[in-house]
Write a structure and sequence with these properties.
Blueprint: H1 4-23, H2 25-28, H3 32-41, H4 54-72
C-alpha cells in the first residue's frame, strides 16, 4: 500500500510534467511524433492536465507541495 507522501509525490511529478508539456505545446502541432509522445509521457488519468492553463497548473503544483509538506509532518491524510 502506498503512503500519502508517495501518492502526493506522484501527483506532483505529473503536474510538473503536464506544465512542461503545456509550455512546449506550440511545437507539438508541427510534429505528429511529438504530439503522440505527449500521451506516452503522462498516464491516462493525468493527460487532461496538459490542456489546463499554466497558471492553473502552477496553483495545483503549489497546493500539492503544501500537502506534501503536511504529509511529511504527519498532518495530512488522503481518505
Amino acid at each position: 500500500m502506498r503512503t500519502e507522501e508517495e501518492i502526493l509525490k506522484e501527483r506532483l511529478r505529473y503536474l510538473r510534467e503536464a506544465k512542461r508539456i503545456g509550455e512546449n505545446e506550440h511545437s507539438f502541432y508541427c510534429n505528429k511524433y511529438l504530439k503522440c509522445f505527449r500521451n506516452d509521457i503522462l498516464p491516462t488519468e493525468f493527460q487532461a492536465l496538459a490542456d489546463i492553463s499554466e497558471s492553473q497548473l502552477q496553483s495545483h503544483i503549489d497546493r500539492i507541495e503544501r500537502d506534501l509538506e503536511d504529509a511529511r509532518a504527519n498532518e495530512f491524510r488522503i481518505e
